[in-house]
TrEMBL record:
Name of the protein in its database record: E3 ubiquitin-protein like
SUPFAM superfamilies with a match to the protein in the record: CHY zinc finger-like (SSF161219), RING/U-box (SSF57850), Zinc hairpin stack (SSF161245)
CC per GO annotation: nucleus
GO molecular function: ubiquitin protein ligase activity; zinc ion binding
Species in which this protein is naturally found: Actinidia chinensis var. chinensis
Domain of life per record: Eukaryota
CHY-type domain location: 63-139
GO BP term (any one): ubiquitin-dependent protein catabolic process
Amino acid sequence: MAAIVVDHSESPNFEPKNLLHITSEEHEMGAAELCSQHLYGECAPSEEPLCDTKITGEELLVKGYMQYGCTHYRRRCRIRAPCCNEIFDCRHCHNEAKNNINVDQKHRHDIPRHQVQQIICSLCGTEQEVRQTCINCGVCMGRYFCETCKLFDDDTLKEQYHCNGCGICRIGGLENFFHCDRCRCCYSVLLKNSHPCVEGAMHHDCPVCFEFLFESRNDVTVMPCGHTIHKSCLKEMFEHCQYACPLCSKSVCDMSKVWEKFDMDIASTPMPESYQNKMVWILCNDCRTTSEVQFHILAQKCPNCKSYNTRKTR
């Protein structure tokens, strides 16, 4: 997730700092020729080669490396979807095709990623059960391979790892993240003792674009209130001068400079005499305190935390 850095200038400057990149993946498993079955990492030479011993393990490891795949993953195999029995490069390709606006709504669906049983080698075209190396040509179909998620990926610079708590693969390096059991998701280790816990924080849609955050491939940031949102969506909110959480309305950054400006504007804008003694009840969105304050046409200030992020209740 990302932390929020605030520049205490005249007008607030908010820059989400990339602390956590939460992404979900897919997975697959196997071993063959000179590559042994390896759950989380690269292929390793097997003691008993299954085919032509003139081909070295290194050659099988790099044969077709980064030459196959799709826009989502570089891999040397395709998958047969268990739901519709069709062949796709990856689960994202399946979901994009089967949830297209041109597809009848009754036939739209997502692939059950953990139920993938069959894969097709991109080099020789052999269909086989999920495994890391092809049973026919012996090529390694993905340097990163997860048997649980049926995920293959040759691009190991992503630093993929499988999180048992999340039940899926993520990227960014296992040593850089921790799993919060209450939030039920992975956060940057920088947030380990400071993030506000919210039950199932990632198990909901982004409040701006409505994409399911837990399996999103885009960067996700956690706001001070503990709610989560896409980093790009939060940036777009700032560009439209929206600085409150779309879910709970709590300020997502230090607004003290803005509140000072409100103080000056209210001081220079006296209310008509008939309104000078008018009192209203307000609820502060930042500290959740209910107070009775003097009414002003511009805004009502919370006497507890001095915030103007309030709403009139009566």
